[in-house]
Amino acid sequence: MLFKQGRFSGFITPLSYILDLLVINLCVNFLPINFQNPWLFHFYISFTWVVLSFKNDFYVIQRYSKAVVLFRKLFTQFVFFFLILYAFIGFFKQPLMSRLALGQYFVLVFIGISFLKILNFFLLHKYRERVKGNLRNVVVIGRSKKANQLIEVFKERREFGFNFMEQFGPKDADFELLKCFQFIANNNVDEIYCSVSELKNEELTAFINFADNNLKTLKFLPDNKNIFSKKLKFEYYDYLPILSLRDIPLHNSLNAIFKRSFDIVFSLFVIFVILIWLGPLLALLISLESKGPVFFIQKRTGFDNNEFQCFKFRSMAVNDLSDDKQAGKNDMRVTKIGRFIRKTSIDELPQFYNVLFGNMSVVGPRPHMLKHTDEYANRVDKYMLRHFVKPGITGLAQVRGYRGEIEKDSDIQNRIKFDIFYVENWSFFLDLKIIVETVVNAFKGEEKAY
Question: Which domain holds residue 50?
């Protein structure tokens, strides 16, 4: 998980990107390539490098990946980079460019980036093995042959960075799911590995539900048993196959960086184009109608179940029920200006500061009050899955009509259904679609925007 507390894995890919882009741009200065337009070449190689990296998953190296995977990625990346590099001459008609110097540039870049990539790979291994940093706490459920082999991998391949904590045997006389869950919760376990052949279907379901509701990663040691119909992903730990049940697109560092970059640009646009003049006007109107602060600041649950201060324009008279009771239809606490800004969702605009500070995203599951998080986590299955990503100013559930007051159980259940769909199927174009629909709904007005 990107920037998850206690790990730094999410910083590795961005840092690698920056270093590699520096290499491919700085090396140009050491050779007489004879550019007609150097800035065009810098833009060209930087842009194509990023596109190639994304297409080839060049920066996707797992902690359990073998060196051969690294070498294969280097080979694939640079074969295409070589072709794109020489295509620059034809695309932009550069007859004076030195082909020999361009070839020397390619070799220099290949050596520099390969050195950095291999050094990073082995230094991380040594860091995990000797310093015991960047570790993930794991437990194994099962005593099968494959389960024991996996434990040996955890113990012997210390460079993978897995800290094996406990083994539970489902067929042991004293095995209890509750004790197992308590151990996982109390010992900060990150990942659970289940031997499918030793668990009953209802036990598998219990582990899936527990992992979903407690933000734990669940993986399986496969056999011929049919687990679930949804798509599964194979990974190999030292030739031992492991199945992952859920893949979160925003746990990919490149996707997360792209989304974060968009969030920063979009929030800056809103702040300096809209809030810079609308903010003072609303502050005056809010202050004239009722006493109290201009902004309403409330603790809400965010990414990875962490609390943060959520900003809004105050739309109610100051009262003691703000942290316990949602606004309802014809709520007497809502002021006149408050009714307007709630109807148009203008009261949410200060949350673009939350986006800029990194607490929220433009699009994501809406953040709930702490009280509601505690309540719904116990009532609604899979509720905690929504915290795998940053909360948003708007979200898929909101544009599908599930916003505002929770009047019946189906409201929150449908909201969570759309939240989970978003978490598991995120794409940039889905974000754009939600933003457009949000703007349209703000002008049209929504039934539950009160």
Answer: 9-131
Select from 205, 227, 247 the last residue of a domain: 247
Residue among 167, 50, 140, 40 at smallest CA distance from 91 = 40
pLDDT tens figures, 34-73: 777 888 889 999 999 988 988 888 888 778 777 888 898 9
b/e burial code for range 218-256 (CB count within 10 A of at least 16 → b)? bbbbbeeeebeeeeeeeeebeeeebbebbebbbbbbbbb
**pTM for the full predicted model:** 0.63
- Say whether both 140 and 118 belong to one domain: no
Same domain? For 64 and 186 the reply is no
Closest CA to 448 of 414, 400, 410: 400
Indicate if 312 and 438 belong to the same structural domain.
yes
**3-state SS, one letter per residue, for 100-117:** HHHHHHHHHHHHHHHHHH
pLDDT digits (tens, 9 = 90+) for 153-198: 898 888 888 999 999 988 888 888 999 999 999 998 999 999 888 8
The radius of gyration of the chain's CA atoms, rounded to the nearest angstrom, is 26
Tally of domains within the chain: 3
State the sign of the Cα–Cα–Cα–Cα dihedral 426, 430, 432, 433.
negative
- Show the tokens assigned to 275: 């809030």
How far out from the chain centre does Cα 315 lie? 32
Contact 313, 341 (CB under 8 A): yes
Start-to-end CA distance of the chain, whole Å, equals 36
**In 132-209, beta strands by DSSP E:** 136-141, 162-168, 191-195
Tell me, yes or no, whether 206 and 263 share the same domain: no
What CATH number did the domain enclosing 160 receive?
3.40.50.2300
Geometric angle at alpha carbon 234, from 229 and 235, rounded to 5°: 150
- 14 token code pair: 């961005």
In total, the chain counts a number of residues equal to 450
Residue 300: is it exposed, middle or buried by C-beta count within 10 angstroms (0-12/13-18/19+)?
A: buried
Residues 118 and 142 both lie in one domain: no
